[in-house]
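Worked example 3. Consider a protein that binds iron/sulfur cluster.
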Amino acid sequence: MIDLNINLDLLEGASSPIVVKLADLTKGCKKKPDMVKVRCSPNRSIFGNWCSGEEEVSIGFSPKFNIEEGEIWLIFPAENKAKRFFRPSSNSNTLLFTERCDQKCIMCSQPPKNKDYLYWDLYFSALKELPNKTFFGISGGEPLLEKEQLFELLRKVISIRPDLKFHILTNAQHFSSDDISELTSLNKNILWGIPLYSTNDAIHDKIVGKKGAFENLLGSMTVLYQSGAQIELRTVLLQQNVGYLSHIVNFIADKMPWISYWALMQLEPIGFARIEFLEKFYDHSQNFELVKLALDSAKIRGVTTKLYNFPSCTVNKPYRELSNKSISDWKNKFLDICSGCKEKQHCSGFFEWYNHTIGYQNLGTKYL
Ligand code: SF4
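Given these inputs, the predicted complex is written out as structure tokens:
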């Protein structure tokens, strides 16, 4: 597990939140004119230099953290904390600015809390420092609860950094026809990740814990279609919806053939998913038939499909190429049985909180 929050044991020179981009002073990085120098405590860190602010600051942190050159940190002096906003080697740099959500999905991995982190200027300063062509995530909570501020941030960033792309996870409850021109102007730079859990409105609503959510979702999809938006439609595999997978595929083919692709995702066993886990988790390694049927339908109907969080050895061989290394690096692990496995470099592996005693029954290299 990689720490994304760092407790600073030395912080001098900053009184309000700042952005720091770490660089190795030993490589002779040049200080940009609009940036000030950051001194790191010599015993604590091999990195120094750069931040967007007006002061010279000193920071120190434990040498146990494996820090990369080019990381971007948000530093919060009041709490003596740094948040690792961007790590160059990560497969999932993500901004979370609210933990509030108006849905309550039965398998939510990050149950909603009444907490916001609305540092828009700071995020703007950090985003404009990203490397060329970075694909950056925005998640929650529900980010569209702060729709106006989010759109403004995206507008400002994309106007000066059109090379950046964003993957934004939203429950698609908050789009309206008034957003079409804004969405149209942003659509080249955004892939919206949108959940659809069943074609049966009552079942979808029950899974997301909100009456009328399915209907709102369809209204939003019309707005997104009219905006030319790029969509990743996401379905978490559950006992509650496994019987609907083929219906979802046909629904996409009939009503939304314009989406970019459909992502079928295995359950992340944390948060609400842990409550009555065995009544939600569908072990496809024991019975792949309904998943197979849906994947076959998707192929026939021309629906591009990806499997997320499916360990390779749990997937029937002809469908294994659909599996992705989808788990964020900071919470990704492999098991002892994976050592020496030839598939490991392509395999999603497991969430850090995966508990094998209640997980996949048919697992390991003998199933490859
Ligand atoms: S044995 Fe481990 S690394 Fe190999 S395919 Fe299975 S889960 Fe992936």
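Take a moment to read the result before moving on. The first strand starts at residue 5 and ends at 7. The pocket of iron/sulfur cluster is lined by residues 311-313, 334, 337-338, 341, 343-344, 347, 349, 363-365 (CB under 6 Å).
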